[in-house]
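Following up on my earlier thread - several people asked me to post the actual chain instead of describing it. Fair enough. Here it is, all 387 residues.
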Amino acid sequence: MPATYDVVVIGAGVFGAWSARFLQKSGAKILLVDAYGPGNSRSSSGGESRIIRLGYGADEIYTRFAMRSLPLWKEIFAETGRPELFHKTGVLWIAPDRYQYAIDSLATLQNNGVGCEQLTVRDLRRRYPQISFEDDAWGIFEPHSGVLMARRAVRAVVDQALAAGVDYRNLGIARPSGQHKLESIATSTGEKISAGSFVFACGSWLPKIFPDVLGSRIFVSRQEILFFGVPPGERQFTQPAMPTWLYLQDEFYGMPDIESRGFKVAHDRHGAPVDPDTQSRVASPDAVESAKEFVARRFPVLKNAPVVETRVCQYESTSNGDFLIDRHPQLENVWLVGGGSGHGFKHGPAVGEYVAAQVTSSAETFTKPEPRFSLATKMSTQNRAVH
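Reply from S.P.:
Thanks for posting it. Predicted structure:
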């Protein structure tokens, strides 16, 4: 007889882990399933670190989601005894004159009561002499934002969910099928698991599991991250001298040397399409050279710094960067949760809370669906607007 749950959550990345946690809080019997394990190296939630920042241009919905998520991250780290999984480095936005995204970010932060500073180029050069700024540069500094230690943060959420009563299974699943309603899923071991509802929060695997619905609506791209070795005894590239930073015009971002792993640098531009199961996890020579050129130009002290570590992950993006959180168009008890689009990790708590409210839809938890998260708004041509 198949195992039966109220809700099965497929995918133990950041969206799935937090969804399972909030669904459990509603009193439901929950099973969390992942083929490779929570925060595994093939997932978009794997890797050492992710930025949590509140600035989002004019996209106030994501500023509010980040504002909700940051205290929830801190809360779960405190509950699990892992406060070191958040580093309050501060986040520095660097923009050229009249750069609209930065102008909108500053206005949105101020309108939502987020503590931040507007910095002139003189301020920037005085505070951060290790960075080379152009004469028209200006900045926004978010003092309370910083870095989440990604794979360990996901593990902390899963551990807390299991302690609260969520079941977990390390299993692959077959592509689901059914008419109007999904009764059960088949696993890689031949087992069947039944549930009242199913939440597919499996990131880069969504278009493989639902090719007819999402094959042309979720774009999986290769993203390469490099860590540069800091000179012996050099403190300019560690906290508090160096914040997490985003160089808007160059489309690079990075963070200080945390836990002696190196100075992190990554290009935010979408890479080539990839398969998350089979893509090479070795950084390409082109990515290394591009990052080296950027570092030499913007951080002159690190001009000849060695690359001490690299990582390759993937973004799973929707057409414009909005999240996908909606019912399957043919299966009424199946929910599609994804489209992290390279900026989703920080929002895990708010996404999980929203998903649980949608799935349970009781009078106590009812939240009006957000139109921007609907499947109907996801196109088959990319036109990135949210980042």
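Residues 1-86+147-218+318-387 form a domain with the FAD/NAD(P)-binding domain fold (CATH 3.50.50.60). That should answer part of your original question.
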